[in-house]
Amino acid sequence: MIDDQPLTILIDGQTAQLGLDSTEPLVRAVLISLFTWRRANPDDELPAEARQGWWGDSFPVEPNDRIGSRLWLLARAKLTDDTARRAKEYVEEALQWLVDDGVVARVEVEAERQGLDRLALACRIFKTDGRVAADVRFTNAWGFLNVV
Q1: Could you tell me the CA-to-CA distances from 137 to 32, 64, 105, 112, 123 in Å, in that order?
Q2: Which residues of 9-45 are buried (b: 16+ CB within 10 A; e: fewer)?
Q3: Which residues of the chain have pLDDT under 70?
Q4: Most CB contacts within 10 A, which of 26, 42, 45, 60?
Q5: Which domain CATH number covers 90?
Q6: Which residues contact 100 (CB under 8 A, 6 or more apart)?
Q7: Containing structural domain, residue 119
Q8: pLDDT given for residue 17 in this prediction
Q9: Tens-digit pLDDT profile for residues 47-67
Q10: Is residue 1 part of a domain?
């Protein structure tokens, strides 16, 4: 829970609890994609010495196939408009596999800085028929990244 509110998402217009225990595979895929640490790129500025990342990415079945996001790189950053832009890019990168693998038709991401200590993220995931498959929103993703 963040801000004393349970985390929920919208799937086909229905509200569902957000959590790894979700029975909705698409929700689980989004959560794992966003909050598993992807290994930092060689040119990334690191908040610590390690490049982190899932060890399994060292031996991908598909070349350059990696899991997770680089959102963890923002943990010690100051929350600015540029930080929000980077968060959006990291989320788009983390969810691109859903499109590449044909799971969904497209993904739309919004990241918005709200004041000095809040970063709202919205991920809308579309089916091939154009309907929204999932609308996953985090009202304070900054809290996840910084354990606020």
Answers
A1: 15, 28, 19, 11, 6
A2: bebeeeebebeeebebebbebbbebbbbbbbbeeeee
A3: 1-23, 147-148
A4: 26
A5: 3.10.450
A6: none
A7: 8-146
A8: 58
A9: 877 888 877 777 777 777 888
A10: no
CA distance 82 to 71: 13
In a domain, 3, yes or no: no
- Cα(first)–Cα(last) distance of the chain, in Å? 11
Best CA proximity match to 73, nearest among 56, 57, 55, 94:
94
Q: Exposed, middle or buried, 139 (CB in 10 Å: 0-12/13-18/19+)? A: middle
Residue 103 within any structural domain of the chain: yes
Dihedral over Cα of 51, 54, 55, 56: its sign:
negative
Nearest to 94 by CA among 47, 141, 140, 143: 141
**DSSP classification of residue 28:** H
pTM confidence score:
0.81
Number of independent structural domains in the chain: 1
Residue 2 domain-assigned? no
CA distance 39 to 55: 9
